Amino acid sequence: MLIVGIAAILLACGQTAGRADNLLDNLSSPLGFALSIGNPFGGAFSFGASDDGSTWVTSPNRPRIRIEGTPEGIRLDSITPDTTTPTAGSPVTFTLVFNRGVENFDSLDDLTATTTDVLLLGIGAINTTDNITFTVPVFAHPDAGQESGSYTLELKLPSNVTGLFSGPPAEATATSASVTVLKDPAPPTVLRLTPAATTLASGAQTSFRLVFSKPMQNVDVSDLIFSASTSVLGGTATNFATINAGRYSFDTTSATIVDGASSGSFTYSVDLFSDINDLDGNALGATLTSPVVTVNATAYQVWAFDKGLPAGEGSGKFDDPNDNGLINWGEYIHDFDPLAASNPGRFRLYAAPLPTDRFFTVTLPVLDGTTYTSITGGRLRAAIPFDNNGVIELIAPSINLTDFTAAPVTVEEVVPAISGSVPGLPDLDPLPAGWSYRTFRITSPISTSGGGFLRFEVFDDSGGS
Question: In this structure, is the dihedral angle defined by the CA atoms of residues 419, 420, 422 and 425, taken in order, positive or negative?
């Protein structure tokens, strides 16, 4: 027959009921226990206790029988700081020991502090390896104008802390020894003033991270010193924000290289003589200058500089200093001379035999990376790479010089380009790196259309065309 009950098992093994009660008392464990006892009649019996206080009994080839018990209540037995006289801002690590394994312990929700003339800067994340003993760092600072302050820490009741797997919430707490936080006489310093990027293209912006050695007060954008070369416009600080008491961030406005310059740079530093100070009232003791942020001219600006366009008036993308009807951006796309009236060595008209009839073609330089797509009206629209800023180019065909949007002819690109020597025509000029000759033609042969015209138009796209 199946024997039910711890006392009965122990009696069957030559023990007494009193011994059974005593053994259960001695086997109380924070994480549960299990024990096997030999049976003089053969086989073995086993019994144990789980974390929720219940016990169980088994015998050979029999199911386990559960005997309910009373869970042991959760209590915090001790909470001990690793120091009771920290300097302001230095962490104090508290060790908390519970009477048995627990879960649902959160340092922010389940701990409470009693403070006197002290500001708690933060309670860090808890750490444990056995769910009984926990450590947690705490940061504090004396109130403004105070030489010191103190606080104690304890488990908040009621709390979310419960026993592992089951059981009621914690029912008893402990209070730490009083921790006296002393004012820190050392002056703060700037640890880091770091840009997110140290190389920018003209017109771009970046952000900075500012970190002090201690928690600070009175820090704002007016405490920054901006230094830039004369070729840089913009780059000034904006969106200054506090991350926490010792860490800050800010963005820069767009940094632009003035026309005629190839590059420039800027830096930031913190004003050593500003009104900022730490929470103890100590003035800034040392500052530093950020890494240099280099701003490079755009591809267009480099081209304009190489072509001799003067800085300022006449060198903008929409200027036309040679008054030939093609803005500087169009001159740039085709590597024409923006100061010359014409570019005979970069432009060739040719009635090309392709393949059995002759077609009107135009060969000219085009910025590498530019692609052309057919659109309405038989036209081609360019997708211009790099810093186009909304500028587009349209190539439109016509047979009468008046209708360039609905002509009975279309334009297409000839691949490969007709850029080699052509009998009776001068050779094209060699091109610098970054440009290649491309050829475009009216798709109707000259014998049908009688000729034709191509218009290259570059303008600001204010909604598409």
Answer: positive
